[in-house]
């Protein structure tokens, strides 16, 4: 598949060819039946005036009933087929864009998470609209052609008027639709940037309040949002001009057909029945012409959205993962790594060990967490990180995720329940044990729903300590071969922290566990402590030995 806007649209059309064929047939029947209604009325008038027969009138009424039934059923089932295909196709593109955005190392594209979210939702939906646009375009064309042929049987001039008028309308509107496409692309980009800005603000709201930067951040968002609003108004003006021009041109054509039919009837060149048919078709043709004339706009919007999706889908991955899997055991090795504040970091954690890393500088801890979480491509740092005896660059992403879990200190809490946050997949074996180890039992006991108590987005109805314990319970329930915890209890009181540290050590016995922390409780519970200072390991022993022998360590971790 060509990962361009046009290529994405071609793929969507090819993948839904069957549904579009049936949809086109049914919508064509709908438009044909709609067109047949004024034609039938004209014929009824013609035959009634000529024959004055009740039998002919009865057959005419039966024919109208058949036409009305065809209109109803063909529209119902045709739109059902097309909308199902549209929704399914939008889902496919949303999943594909989201899969790119969820890669452990972001793709090499200058888009923030908020922009990727917009592309995965609005742009995916608008791209999939092409599946409905094409059948509706064809069915509208069927209606216009039937109208032209029917009027042409009455008078060649009427048929030519419809054909020439339709071509003129589409030519004029295609010029306006070009502006709509360009404006829509810019509008979607600005809305996406505003979404990214507000996502960043929400994530950093507490730190911003901490140093008084919330007002400046708000002004920054207001500027971006104002730009998006201005562009939306510009696009709305163009859309309004397009809709107004389409309506006016369609009305002009319908009026021209009506007046021409009236003049021909007055001149005796067409019959009264043909006049009724002509006037009826002139009124009816407004709808398919309106639909027909709007198609260029929808095509341009779909193409603009597809091109934005191509920005993500066609972007080269910063990291190309390997295909190997870690060996059984769960050992972790960081060998002479230089990245950010890390200056030749070296350490090895054997399978089944519980190791605590006391990082004197938060920046060093954050850099180490990013490396272990595979958020940094191998080319961005020197040295080697090995998991299960293999370099991470040689391992598949799926294998790394199954083998190694890094739980950050600011792990997200999702809207749902306590249970769905702890065990999102519903397959965890250690949910009860994880709840007890993280001391989340008191939170569950507070609510009559228990573990099924509702949780708002980002854990808005939980305290900081409760959110932290919920995140820790989720990490423990995953039961990964290697678990890395970064400051898991900074918002928890000292007594609870002591209990959690002992519980984690007990639950993770014989499982590789690394805790990056300055918590005395976790440092004391660990088999050994590594001191990370100035980007390297400067000391290694048990917590109690370091307290008695290392004054810097004692000053850094004693509370």
From TrEMBL:
Where primarily located? membrane
**Bilayer-spanning residue ranges:** 21-45, 57-75, 133-151, 157-176, 241-266
Membrane topology per the entry is: Multi-pass membrane protein
Q: Which residues form the ABC transmembrane type-1 domain?
A: 22-295
Q: Which domain of life is it from?
A: Bacteria
Gene3D superfamilies per UniProt = ABC transporter type 1, transmembrane domain, P-loop containing nucleotide triphosphate hydrolases
Q: Taking every annotated instance into account, which residue ranges of this chain make up the domain ABC transporter?
A: 318-559
Q: Which UniProt keywords apply?
A: ATP-binding, Membrane, Nucleotide-binding, Transmembrane, Transmembrane helix
> What are the subcellular locations of this protein?
Cell membrane
Output one GO MF annotation. Answer: ATP binding
Q: Which InterPro entries match?
A: ABC1_TM_dom, ABC1_TM_sf, ABC_transporter-like_ATP-bd, ABC_transporter-like_CS, P-loop_NTPase, Type_1_exporter
What is this protein's record name?
A: ABC transporter ATP-binding protein
Organism of origin is Nonomuraea antimicrobica
